[in-house]
Design a protein that fits this description.
heterodimer, A: alpha+beta, 19 strands, B: alpha/beta, Pnp Oxidase, Chain A, eleven-stranded mixed β-sheet, seven-stranded antiparallel β-sheet, 15 helices
Chain lengths: 360, 486
């Protein structure tokens, strides 16, 4: 029963609040509990592979040009709030009818030279072929007023469900930040390419629009990219120039239904040898984009050229092995699901050559 | 609790915080199929090697000196489960015995089922009952962790060599008083070499009233109420004093023996005549000088007298205590090193005489900081030869390295108080009835007044107990300069 669980009230961000609905994702909790109740009294098969965490994947490459003339950046120390969002999901184990997954999201922000965070979750779901549509639709409807089937022709792939639910939570957290943060910087993990199941065009546009209305800027950092120019990754074609700087790309086009909502840059933010793909809302004027990156430079730390706020968001939502054990303990104790080890057929058949399935 | 590993006679058991297990506790690892159980004692506790704990700790690390402020919204309340897993501990346990059909055997040669074994705490009373520790003459040592009492059998001290050791001010003397009082109540004869004069009043309650043992305590102060007439002395005892305590060379000893016999035969064995005889002795000058210096040492001790009225008959006191039990406290507090050795030689010689002639059945000897008065050769004598005569010694010391290794090897019972010094623990762990891991691990963490009892008194099941209070007048308090306690 829902009322058996403590559902806390609105998290109070440390920046101006607007009159919008920022309640906790109660539907996540309801769906989580509901799905766990549907697990028949049976054993759960432990995930035999390493604790695999899913993240939103990079999009397909395209024709692209990279301007090798750097745009020099000067750190702007004007006090600016920087916020970041990330989510993580992990498969806990399998049941006879489905999988048990956990999802967690985190938002971090730096304000007045201090970092703060809010972590949401973990939410635990038992996903089956039977309930996967219901879970998706209930959550989509609850937060975005849409049904999954309204936007897509096919039902969600079973194995994609962990990523799907995590991205749902991530978009919701991004929406909340875009609604609440004024004159700040919002850092996303990944790109601003829309048109996928995890990044629907309309939803992404709404988030960017909300941020613009609040005079905030969305900067999306990709830890890895598949975008190449002349066969080389754009992040590995760095000119001999003193960082920090940006390299501009042009001509980015994707095949339908993918739509880039941002302009793609290569950002080298400090002297470390790493550069990252940076997507900036293409609806914003170029001077504002540069100003935003300069404010980021002046207000946040950068380890290996990556913003600390975003790094913290990632670290805080990641599941540790210890937490996975605790989640198993929780589902065993609270829901009576017994954990057993079925033999790993790869190991059983191939001995030391049986490495198990490799998830990509 | 879950059985994780067995290596030799060490078990590793996974335990969670709500199971509330501590060092020193006993666990029963029951294998229902084998119908046997292992009895193991927790000798150390470690954090279980939980994967991901380092990452968990790292991300809560302070940021620039201050922890990152934040809020965790955990609607399913997973956090307590994370804490539960993180706080899991690995109990390192030493197998002490196997329990089969209610019978104990010291075997650890079988392997209980890892998945099917039931692990539970074994209470001290149950363990003591299984091991049949209490016997017919119980001595309550104190309380164990589970509010139960550690009771040993006085018979298990009988004929045994015991050591009470621990660092300063942790309760060694208190325990030895407790053992003495308990033994007296079982009509035992006790002799105490009281180095600091703290046992004289064990016949008094803390508020200064006489207790039931008052008439059984004979506090002897050398040169005051404890003197010996030469006439009462047996030549062997005197020779022992001269050779061992006063290091008289062989030739001079022969001369002294001759003088003594002559005086004894003539019925003129007094201090005065002995002095004159030595002075008038026609012999090598060095021999005479040696005898003169030893004679003066004997006279200056004040312990010897010519007056039979002044003399205390140790033998009489021993015989008195033989009937109803009693303690002869030899107060060595204000005696010099030489006098101390003279006294000890005399008392031990007298005891051996009485025991050899079956005037006494047996004596419990309590020797505090014995290295300060016991000659080298006596150590082995006490634990081997004298034991056969019926002298059962308890050594009490805060310097365990002053007791010879051979004593530790033969010790039957060890009452071990807290030690933090590795060297001290090393010394004690040489005892044959003790395993080094137990001593090192448990003794280091013992609180004051808590004692780890090892050996035959506890049937080789080491047990920690808080030594119970004793209503006797304390005399062992250190004199302080700043004694104005607030």
């Amino acid at each position: 029963m829902i009322e058996q669980y403590t559902i806390t009230t609105t998290p109070k961000y440390n920046f101006p609040q607007s009159n919008i609905d920022t309640i906790l994702p109660q539907r996540f909790i309801e769906q989580s509990i509901q799905s766990l109740k549907q697990v028949p009294p049976q054993h759960i098969q432990l995930n035999q592979h390493n604790f695999l965490q899913y993240h939103i994947l990079e999009q397909h490459p395209s024709h692209l040009r990279l301007n090798h003339t750097p745009i020099t950046l000067n750190p702007n120390h004007q006090e600016t709030t920087i916020a970041a969002v990330d989510t993580s999901t992990i498969k806990i184990g399998e049941t006879a009818t489905g999988i048990i997954i956990a999802i967690r999201g985190s938002t971090t922000w730096k304000q007045h030279k201090k970092y703060r965070y809010t972590r949401l979750g973990p939410f635990i779901f038992h996903i089956t072929e039977e309930n996967k549509n219901e879970v998706c639709n209930t959550l989509e409807q609850a937060y975005f007023g849409t049904y999954y089937y309204n936007n897509r022709h096919t039902s969600p792939n079973f194995t994609q469900m962990p990523t799907r639910l995590a991205s749902l939570l991530e978009r919701w957290l991004q929406t909340i930040l875009a609604k609440t943060l004024s004159k700040g910087l919002i850092l996303f993990d990944g790109s601003l390419t829309s048109g996928t199941s995890d990044a629907p065009v309309q939803r992404m546009k709404e988030i960017l629009s909300l941020a613009r209305n609040n005079q905030s800027m969305v900067l999306a950092f990709s830890k890895m990219t598949s975008l190449r120019v002349n066969g080389y990754l754009i992040t590995e074609q760095l000119p001999k120039h003193e960082p920090p700087y940006l390299l501009e790309t042009t001509g980015l086009r994707f095949k339908s239904p993918l739509i880039p909502l941002g302009n793609v840059y290569v950002a080298r933010l400090n002297k470390s040898k790493y550069a990252f793909r940076l997507d900036i809302d293409k609806e914003t004027p170029i001077p504002q984009r540069m100003s935003a990156v300069e404010k980021l430079l002046g207000n946040d730390l950068h380890m290996q050229g990556y913003p600390e706020t975003l790094r913290l968001a990632h670290i805080l939502c990641t599941f540790t092995a210890n937490e996975v054990l605790a989640i198993k303990h929780f589902i065993t104790r609270k829901h009576g699901i017994q954990i057993i080890n079925r033999p790993d057929m790869h190991k059983l058949l191939f001995g030391p050559f049986g490495k198990g399935e490799i998830y990509s | 609790m879950k059985l994780y590993k067995k290596e030799g006679n060490i078990l590793q058991i996974l335990s969670f915080s709500d199971e509330n297990v501590e060092k020193g506790d006993y666990l029963l690892v029951e294998d229902p199929d084998a119908r046997k159980a292992l009895i193991a004692q927790v000798i150390d506790m470690q954090f279980a090697n939980i994967p991901g704990v380092l990452e968990e700790l790292l991300r809560t690390l302070p940021d620039g000196g201050e922890p990152i402020q934040g809020e965790d919204i955990d609607p399913l309340e997973i956090a307590p489960h994370i804490t539960y897993i993180q706080d899991a501990s690995m109990l390192i346990c030493k197998i002490r015995a196997t329990l089969e059909n209610e019978l104990l055997s010291p075997s650890s040669s079988w392997l209980p089922s890892r998945s099917q074994s039931n692990i539970s705490k074994l209470s001290v009373p149950k363990l003591l009952k299984l091991a049949d520790v209490e016997g017919t003459r119980p001595i309550i040592i104190g309380g164990t962790k589970g509010a139960s009492l550690l009771t040993i059998d006085a018979s298990s001290l009988d004929g045994r060599l015991n050591i009470i050791t621990g660092k300063k001010e942790c309760g060694k003397s208190h325990l030895s008083k407790l053992l003495m009082v308990s033994l007296i109540s079982y009509k035992a004869t006790i002799v105490i070499f009281d180095l600091n004069g703290e046992y004289s009043n064990i016949g008094m309650t803390a508020d200064g009233k006489r207790n039931m043992h008052y008439h059984k305590i004979y506090a002897l102060i050398p040169a005051k109420n404890f003197k010996v007439a030469l006439e009462q002395l047996h030549l062997n005892v005197v020779m022992g004093i001269l050779i061992h305590a006063l290091h008289l060379p062989g030739t001079s000893a022969r001369e002294f023996r001759r003088i003594w016999k002559t005086l004894k035969d003539s019925g003129n064995l007094t201090l005065c005549s002995l002095g004159e005889a030595i002075q008038n002795l026609k012999c090598n000058q060095h021999v005479r000088d040696a005898l003169v210096s030893r004679y003066h040492a004997l006279v200056n001790s004040g312990f010897f007298t010519d007056s039979l009225a002044e003399a205390t008959l140790l033998e009489e006191i021993l015989l008195k205590s033989k009937e109803e039990g009693g303690a002869i406290v030899i107060n060595l507090r204000n005696t010099s090193t030489i006098d101390r050795q003279i006294l000890v030689e005399y008392v031990l010689g007298k005891l051996v005489d009485s025991l050899q002639s079956w005037k006494l059945k047996a004596v419990f000897l309590f020797a505090e900081e014995a290295h300060l008065y016991l000659r080298e050769t006596y150590w082995d004598d006490i634990v081997t030869r004298m034991r056969h005569f019926g002298i059962f010694t308890t050594f009490i010391t805060n310097q365990p390295d002053t007791i010879r290794e051979s004593i530790y090897r033969q010790a039957d019972n060890i009452f071990l108080f807290n030690f933090t010094n590795e060297h001290d623990l090393d010394v004690v762990s040489r005892a044959s009835r003790v395993d080094a891991e137990t001593v090192r691990s448990i003794a280091r963490d013992l609180p004051p007044h808590h004692c780890l009892t090892l050996g035959k008194v506890v049937r080789d099941f080491p047990i920690v107990a808080r030594v119970r209070n004793l209503d006797v007048k304390t005399m062992g308090e250190t004199r302080l300069f700043f004694n104005d306690k607030k």
